[in-house]
Amino acid sequence: MTTAPQTTAPPQTSDRGIPWMRVLLWAAIAFTVIFSLAPVLWQVLTSVKTNDAITADAVVYFPGLDQLTADHYLDLFRRNRFYIYMFNSALVSIVSTVLCLALGSPAAYALARLRIPGEQVILAIVLVVTLFPYILLFLGLLEVVRAFGLANNYLALIIPYTAINLPLTILVMRSFFQQLPKDLEDSARVDGYNTVQMLWRIVLPMTLPALVTTGILAFIFAWNEYLFALTFMTREEMKTIPVAAAQLGGTTLFEVPYGPLAAATVVGTLPLVLLVLFFQRRIVQGLTSGSVKG
Amino acid sequence: MSKLELQNLTKAYSRDIVPVKKLSLAVEDNEFLTLVGPSGCGKSTILRLIAGLDQPTEGRVIIGDRDVSPLPPGDRNIAMVFQSYALYPHMTVRDNIASGLKMRNLPAGDIQKRVQEASGVLGLDPLLDRKPAKLSGGQRQRVALARALVRNPDVFLLDEPLSNLDALLREQVRADLKQIFADQKSPIVYVTHDQTEAMTLSTKVAVLSNGHLQQLGHPNEIYKTPANRFVASFIGSPQMNLIPLSRVGNDVALGDFRVPLPSGSTAKSVILGIRPEHLRLPREGDACTVSGDVFLVENLGMSDLVSLRVQGDPSLTLRALLPADATWSKENLRLALPPELIHWFDGDTEQRLNA
């Protein structure tokens, strides 16, 4: 490779003019990135701008040094006690995600591996559940929450979030289990694993990427959910981030608190971004490669 | 020590889908039984029944003198090598090999020793700490074998273990397999659709078709005296010439030529079978010959596979393996059919007529 004399053979593409395909490709990439990330960037910039810079007549796109401030973030935690909402959101999201995986994966495994009579019917029903606009479930749920006295209880969010995410979990995990080579499970049984040991020590480790992927989806849903959280949680210390952010008030009735709102948005989004970045490699990694001839 | 016996084994998925029908056979110590047959003949199902991965509809599986039919696979003390190797992807090679032993709570030192032994035999020592994803196909195959060997099982089951290897490697591993299993006392049941593997490895071959046992015997016996038309056509490469003919007195007419029937046969129609490698250029004293025009020559290197149309009936074709250094003409080539190498089958029952 390196022995080829570079002086005698100049790269042929250089005198073919502008490589339009590449230019076009990069232009498209740049456009997509700006189009999707510009609003996020605007929120981040707003959250660190002083109130004067935010409301200035001439739009301040990039704040100067004297226009930077961390006040909005400090406000969020000092005045609005945002850590309470973060804790609530985290608790509800994590518990409902774990529940979802713990209930959904065994169901998916059974649907993928056992010959259950009426399997197609069960799957159809699971799918139908996802078809309901969830605003329709809302009124019914409100009555249920009232009847069981669950208002201002974490369970009032955990149970519906789990239920709404279950169909997706079951369908995704089922198709994943179907791809897992059956030979591995047979081999484990010949090796003497009983069903529980086999699932725990052989199937589960291979299922991790799928669990992480569906888990993240379920988590994002629960973290971002607004309507149920708004209705079922009325006490201030039970609210989740989306509700709390929406209810941020200014110092007067007529002031829209752009700065704190932007800061709340960033604080609410950051955990999701970190989560996805952290697990990204796990999602992409094909853990099953190498077990059977591929 | 141990002996594997199948009694009246039947597996039915529905009334019409019966992959195994009333199969009875026994495999003794030091025996290497190969189940061979075309795809869908039930051979893999039989293996799964022996392993306990599927439950038989009827019949029993006996290992040693205990009936293991009601036992789960883990309690049968068998080892199985899967076609796909089925290595656990999240475990190292060492853990993969040891997994069966760990499940039986053997002392750690014991496990260590047995893993060392098996990995030594199969040359896996440098790979012990790798994950299966980092291994080549041949290496994975050896790990799968090692996992079976360390178990010291009462029965070895191998399900087409070579079919995922490329042709060159397959030949080499086949030879290795033969050596490795020559040292094993336990009975071995090996499933393949490759007749070369069946012939080279086994001490006993069971030819299966449609869930029925067609013939059970030593590889030579299967090759020299196939029990019926199916076995004759399945075993041997290139395939045996099988020509349905009707009887004319005590002979059959093969185009313009007459071939005498074996004495004592009464069948109205017969099938004449002769292997391409047994057809030869005539020598002095050959009574039974045919001739015809060659329409295809396939060069196999050490010999030529010659196809010819028999004179007198252009619909009859014969294929013959002739040595590459022989000289012959394409037109009106004369070939001898040594009578002792002709296989006769009944035209209706397709069973063998001559001994």
Report on the structure:
The complex is a heterodimer of chains A (294) and B (355). Chain A has twelve helices and no strands. Residues 1-11 and 286-291 of chain A have low confidence and may be disordered. By secondary structure, chain A is mainly α. Chain B has 355 residues and is of the alpha+beta class. Chain B folds into two domains: 4-234, Rossmann fold, CATH 3.40.50; 242-346, no CATH class. A six-stranded mixed beta sheet of chain B has the order 6-7-8-3-9-10, with helices on both faces.
Short structural description:
The complex is a heterodimer of chains A (294) and B (355). Chain A is mostly helical and 294 residues long.
Topology:
The complex is a heterodimer of chains A (294) and B (355).
Chain A: H1 20-47, H2 51-55, H3 71-78, H4 82-113, H5 119-131, H6 134-148, H7 155-179, H8 182-190, H9 195-224, H10 227-232, H11 241-246, H12 258-284
Helix pairs in contact in A: 1-12, 3-12, 4-7, 4-9, 5-7, 7-9, 8-9, 9-12
Chain B: E1 4-11, E2 20-27, E3 32-36, H1 43-51, E4 58-63, E5 66-67, E6 78-81, H2 93-103, H3 108-122, H4 137-149, E7 155-159, H5 167-182, E8 188-192, H6 195-201, E9 204-209, E10 212-217, H7 219-224, H8 229-234, E11 241-248, E12 251-254, E13 257-260, E14 269-274, E15 289-299, E16 303-310, E17 317-323, E18 333-336, E19 343-346
Parallel strand pairs in B: 3-8, 3-9, 6-7, 7-8
Antiparallel strand pairs in B: 1-2, 1-4, 4-5, 9-10, 11-12, 11-14, 12-13, 14-19, 15-16, 15-18, 16-17
pLDDT averaged residue by residue of chain B: 90
CATH architecture descriptor text of the largest domain in chain A: Orthogonal Bundle
- Helix content range of the residues of chain A, please? 55-70%
Largest interface: A-B, 23 and 33 residues
Q: What is the CATH class designation of the largest domain in chain B?
A: Alpha Beta
Quaternary form: heterodimer
Helix content of chain B: 10-25%
Give the beta-strand count of chain A. Answer: 0
Order of helices and strands of chain A: HHHHHHHHHHHH
Structural class label of chain A: mainly alpha
CATH architecture label of the largest domain in chain B: 3-Layer(aba) Sandwich
Per the CATH scheme, the topology name of the largest domain in chain A is: MetI-like fold
CATH homology group of the largest domain in chain B: P-loop containing nucleotide triphosphate hydrolases
